[in-house]
Amino acid sequence: MTDRSRPDLDDTTVEALGKLSEALETVEQARGFLYAFHQLSGKADILLGEALDSFREAGATALADDLERDLLGRDVVADRWTFQVVEDYDDGYWTAFRAADARARTELSGGDRHVLEARMKQRERTPGAPRQEAGPGLAP
């Protein structure tokens, strides 16, 4: 296995790959928040339905009917439920970002990921110290 700290690459390239990787990790975090938004919005709609049932049981039928008409199953953004927002994000921005990261890694580092971090590990570890081994794909 090749030394993943890639001593053959110049520092500027490694730094650029590191920044791109960090940007992708930020996009991954945003995607996680988007999925949380999707799940929370769905849960809110289910709870709203339960509230409507309770309003009807309590005799507040007109209120329940109005809330059902105005809120239950409502699009969260123009013409979309949250699953459609998630799908658009995944099929568009997220997929394009992952492809860009993969291209850069393929062209510049032979596909190696986290080259910047591999260099940091090599620089910061104490050879021979317990729990500070080079590990897979790093030179000893």
Describe the model.
Residues 111-140 are annotated as: Disordered. Residues 111-126 have a biased composition (Basic and acidic residues). The chain has one domain (11-124). The protein is 68% helix and 0% strand. It contains 4 helices and no strands. It has helices at residues 11-57, 61-70, 82-109, 115-124. The two termini are 12 Å apart. The model has no long low-confidence stretch (mean pLDDT 95).
Summarize the structure.
This protein has one domain. α1 packs antiparallel against α2 (61-70). The protein contains four helices and no strands.
Supply database-style keywords.
about 0% strand; mainly alpha; about 70% helix
Low-confidence stretches: none
Please describe the biggest sheet, giving its number of strands, its sense, and whether it closes into a barrel.
none
Q: Please provide the ordered H/E string of secondary-structure elements.
A: HHHH
What is the rounded Rg? 25 Å
Work out the helix count: 4
How many domains, in number, for the residues?
1
Mean pLDDT: 95
Write the layout of secondary structure elements.
Elements (H helix, E strand, L loop, with lengths): L10 H47 L3 H10 L11 H28 L5 H10 L16
